[in-house]
Design a protein that fits this description.
8-stranded parallel β-barrel, 4 domains, elongated, TIM Barrel, Double Stranded RNA Binding Domain, about 20% strand, 16 strands, 3-stranded antiparallel sheet
Length: about 525
């Protein structure tokens, strides 16, 4: 099995995404997670550009890395300056990283227009910089910026740039599609031609401006590249970098290239989500391999087939990358969806139970009204338990009132909710304030219930979404989706109404009742306390 080296640039190129900013602590945590995962090289940042990256390298030197090698990134010496006098070069060496990656111009257009110098001066800059850094680091990788654009425009000069870096001792020549516009067939052809012209190891660094970064990286490997650069989740400037979360499983599971230590592939899903959290980015649910929808099935025909054999509609086993299979419930669902979902939720149910059709009909009617169960598993489970006679309400609403008052233009509104509930033969009447009507209602409900069910204090509202589903101005129907959690897990609930407070109430009540069902597990006829 041929080995391909993984070079992660999330901490440098990835942070050039307009939405992302990582603290030093964030960068260290991500680096440690990548090291645990088995990435070969981690580019920590650009020490010559800011104090934060300098601090990262200072702290990284004190960490014992198990699998990864930390790399510092910088540029070739400035035009007309001696390499040993260049401040950025000094910062690169001062970072103390065992590997230095240096980027240099490989497109003659950039040399004359961006650097405003001669082609000969650029070649000298590349050669002198690489040679100097080789005396101060264990390895030096040369990123040939705009390589493919340069090769199409002036292949002889672009190859001279590579030769200058190779002659100076570069350990890997990384071919960069910096503008991200090269198509895959050109990547394959050019890498193949370069492979025939040099003995130096080749790498590939692609951007995703034409939605080809992953395909281009794989094509480069097929034609001789042995190092692949990219970022977790494809983060990066403009449209992003090549997504390592797609490249890694494609290389190892589909192309037979060894990229990770044994057993690490199953950590891919967790790594993807960890980096998304560190970057404060929502996880793209449709991301291949690691997205929540990557192995989600909605159409009844699809679900029926995967119940017989998952290969019918899955290109790999989701567990191979640490993901899992999801069956979605919607108005497109058939019996197979219902049976799979019920089985997944652990509900006692017979395959030929007529309640299957009852649940299916009810779901289709509710979705016609605007309900959505794809992100509301807890509401679906409560619906199914009602159908099989296992539903326990735990409490009964006697009434509630919500007041939202704004006393002056410059002050924030004041929200207060009053609620009356019944638990068995007891009635609790209470009130609570909140930073909005829904928050006040949530606080009042918890306050009323905690006397009977102390565990409701563990429930946290993690996300709250409102969507207009039937256009009618201020009288439109709305759907409220609530994501809740405790120390053990998370769950989703849904409510729909013309009244946003009523829709929120439905979702809140389902959330609390689901929590109580999980902790109490009582059956009908038993006490709800």
């Amino acid at each position: 099995m041929k080995t391909v080296q993984l070079y992660d640039t999330t901490l440098r190129d990835g942070t050039q995404s307009q939405e992302i900013s990582l603290s030093v602590l964030d960068k260290l945590k991500v680096a440690e997670k990548l090291d645990e995962f088995g990435i070969h090289y981690i580019e920590g940042g650009y020490p010559g550009s800011n104090p934060k990256d300098m601090e990262f390298f200072e702290r990284a030197r004190k960490i014992r890395w198990k699998n990864s090698v930390i790399c510092a990134f910088g540029m070739t010496r400035r035009v007309g300056r001696k390499v040993e006098d260049d401040a950025n070069i000094k910062a690169l060496v001062g970072a103390g990283a065992p590997v230095i990656t240096v980027v240099g111009k490989a497109w003659d257009f950039h040399v004359t227009e961006a650097l405003r110098t001669t082609l000969e001066e650029n070649l000298a800059s590349v050669k002198e910089t690489v040679a100097y850094l080789k005396r101060h680091a264990g390895k030096v990788f040369f990123d040939a910026e705009h390589f493919f654009d340069g090769y199409r425009n002036n292949p002889k000069y672009t190859m001279k740039v590579l030769a200058a870096a190779a002659d100076a001792g570069a350990d890997c020549l990384v071919l960069c599609d910096t503008n991200g516009g090269t198509i895959t067939s050109d990547i394959a052809r050019i890498v193949k031609e370069v492979r025939k012209s040099t003995l130096a190891p080749l790498g590939i660094h692609t951007h995703n401006d034409a939605e080809m970064a992953v395909a281009n990286s794989l094509a480069a490997v097929e034609n001789g590249a042995t190092q692949v650069q990219g970022t977790i989740n494809g983060y990066g400037e403009r449209c992003g970098n090549a997504n390592l979360c797609s490249i890694i499983p494609a290389l190892q599971l589909k192309m037979g290239r060894k990229v990770l230590p044994e057993g690490r592939m199953k950590k891919l899903y967790a790594v993807s989500r960890f980096v998304a959290e560190a970057a404060n980015m929502g996880q793209w649910i449709h991301q291949p391999y690691t997205g929540e929808a990557a192995f989600a099935h909605k159409g009844g025909m699809h679900v029926s087939a995967i119940r017989r054999h998952p290969k019918t509609y899955e290109h790999i086993e989701p567990e191979a990358v640490g993901n899992s299979r999801h069956v979605l419930i919607s108005d497109l669902s058939g019996r197979s969806n219902i049976l799979s979902k019920i089985q997944e939720r652990g509900i006692r149910f017979q395959a030929k139970d007529p309640n299957t059709e009852k649940i299916l009909d009810e779901i289709k009617e509710l979705e016609h009204k605007g309900y959505q169960f794809e992100g509301a598993d807890a509401s679906f489970e409560l619906l199914a338990r009602r159908a099989v006679g296992e539903h326990v309400p735990f409490f009964e609403l006697k009434g509630f009132r919500v007041i939202d008052e704004k006393r002056s233009e410059g002050e924030s509104p004041i929200a207060e909710a009053t609620i009356m509930i019944g638990v068995d033969d007891k009635v609790e009447h209470t009130a609570a304030m909140g930073n909005g009507p829904v928050n006040a209602m949530d606080n009042a409900l918890r306050k009323a219930l905690e006397k009977f069910y102390p565990e409701v204090a563990d429930v946290r509202l993690l996300d709250y979404k409102v969507r207009v589903i039937q256009q009618g101005g201020t009288g439109s129907s709305v759907r409220v989706l609530i994501h809740s959690g405790d120390k053990e897990s998370t769950w989703g609930t849904v409510g729909v109404s013309h009244n946003i407070i009523e829709a929120s109430w439905q979702a809140l009540v389902d959330s609390i009742r689901f929590k109580l069902w999980r902790t109490r597990r009582v059956l009908p006829g038993e006490s709800g306390e």
